[in-house]
Amino acid sequence: MANLIRTDHHQHLPKKRKRGESRVFRLKTFGETGHPAEMNELSFRDNLGKLLEFGHFESSGLMGSWSFQLEVNRNPNPLYVLLFVVEEPIEASLNLRCNHCQYVGWANQMICNKKYHFVIPSKETMAAFLKLEGGSYAFPEKESLLHLVELQGHVLHGFFHSNGFGHLISLNGIETGSDLTGHQVMDLWDRLCTGLKARKIGLNDASHKKGMELRLLHGVAKGEPWFGRWGYRFGTGTYGVTQKIYEKAIESVRNIPLCLLNHHLTSLNRDTPILLSKYQSLSTDPLITLSDLFRFMLHLHSRLPRDNYMNNPRNQIISIDSTNCRWSQKRIQMAIKVVIESLKRVEYRWISRQEVRDAARNYIGDTGLLDFVLKSLGNQVVGNYLVRRSLNPVKKVLEYCLEDISNLLPSSNNELVTPQNQSSIGKMTTNGHNKITRGQVMKDMFYFYKHILMDYKGVLSPTGGILNQIGMASRAILDAKYFIKEYHYIRDTSAKTLHLDGGDKLGIFCTIAPKYHHHHNNEITMPPQECIVVNKDATLSEVYGEAERAFRDIYWELRDVVVESVADGQKEIITRVDEMATLMNGNKGLVLEGNVGMMMNVEVMKCYEDDNKKKDKRIECECGAKEEDGERMVCCDICEVWQHTRCVGVQHNEEVPRIFLCQSCDQHLIPLSFLP
């Protein structure tokens, strides 16, 4: 097994849980401090070690793994998922350089010693790559672990480099057969990143729903991608799209007045203005811009009950499974009625769970029954009401509220807007009521998405007018695929030393400026700061030793680094840690100089040679791209300049030509008459 860090420093190793020892953790809180680990250290690697102490350990040669059983639901139907953490040392990696880092803009990062993959397999990947032995899952071979993390289609797959930078690779919700929603999975990932004190996380946004790219849909509706809810912002674009281009495209599409679209949309379908007026009448606020329309439709879709409830519109009380509880269905229904009436009496205000419980106890004496009903009623539809439940972020208590949704539900005399035989864009009912279903909102949203945002025929038309503007801006938004969230950094730049353990220990933020004896042309930036902990009366040589240990553990290229001095040549003026305050240089903290030995092996030198070859690769695309961005490219056979296949007219579903000439070479090529 490859340990969490180097084996000569056992104090950081996670403890191995005994085989067969199993614990269950709540999905909803997993990753928070204290759930399960007190992740209160200042460095990512130390917090990761604390978390892994609670995992069920499995070893497979160079690679190790930990598993966590997470409880999604307890009642009425118990549901669990497995989270695996797979440790991939550099010796087991297929590639030294991380392509994800390059595409997201971190190409100059040093190579790290390890990656830590966090994986929740889907049902398909679980069946294919985990073997059931005596009721417990095990990984028999190293290849199985590598195959697991490389497989596409996990419910969750993200990984961290050992320096705290990471990437979210895969996230799949209910639509792909998962038992978890996309929000549940993303909340878990965000809690893990926050709790572990990750530095930065990058992702390639390919999220979609019902045929719609969410980075475009949410970009127009809310001014940010779907992942923006968790703080992800523009990182890098493809096809030459910069942050300025992306922001301008978002702004231009969002602010287009709907009144200007009426003429163009009427030419598409004469029912389109009627469809627009339907949503205007449903909204309490005027829908003026394209952003207003999509934002309201997303909000309306989230408020409506699922369509399977529409099949039973006269059900006044929800049905709760009583097979796993001691109360009859009749008693449960009576308790539900009492709770609903208690919420009605407070006139749709938010009240605490305790207040609801106290009011209902005047009629229901069984407190166990009330607790069961209150837990089951959260965010459920009861008749014409939606029972909302939420955690008050200030008081930290559960609160309940009743919301009247009768105007959104179908009536008893079949006034449903969209029967199965009606067209996908929907129509007004004959009596003028704007009754609508959740499924119909999604269909209408797709109609607007397809014919307004994705109408590339309008882009190619010389008379396209406003649709030209929307089409070009939509393409720019879709070409912005890489988003980044910065999690953990030192906000107070003046505090580069911290007193710990009552003042007996000192935390110092430092980095190493490496000096290489071998020749290479790569410009390597200093690694980000790490916090090392030493005694308050430690000598300077002890600080050097602790810094060497930390950076050797993290970075492959610094495995034999030897710290010799403070970078500014001030070694002579200090001898103890308490004199270092004078060396804290603004945002840099303590900068140490370290020599990287002559033991750089063949693989390291080959890595730098490959990097130099990539830098020599000429990329000059008409879109403005100068670097690889993960999109398919083709090389001219004469000038050897690389361009995007899309930019030279090769469609995604077409093969790259065996012989390709760029436009410039093709125009200047002199015909040879003697050729047949």
Automatic annotation (TrEMBL):
Q: Does the keyword Transcription apply?
A: yes
Domain named Zinc finger PHD-type: residues: 620-666
InterPro entries referenced in this protein's UniProt entry, alphabetically? MS1-like_ubiquitin (IPR057765), WHD_PTC1 (IPR059080), Zinc_finger_PHD-type_CS (IPR019786), Znf_FYVE_PHD (IPR011011), Znf_MS1-like (IPR058054), Znf_PHD (IPR001965), Znf_PHD-finger (IPR019787), Znf_RING/FYVE/PHD (IPR013083)
Q: What is this protein called?
A: PHD finger protein MALE STERILITY 1
> What organism does this protein naturally occur in?
Camelina sativa
PROSITE patterns tied to this protein = ZF_PHD_1
User: What keywords are assigned to this protein?
Assistant: Metal-binding, Transcription, Transcription regulation, Zinc, Zinc-finger
One Pfam family this sequence matches: Ubiquitin_At1g33420
Gene3D superfamilies found in the cross-reference section: Zinc/RING finger domain, C3HC4 (zinc finger) (3.30.40.10)
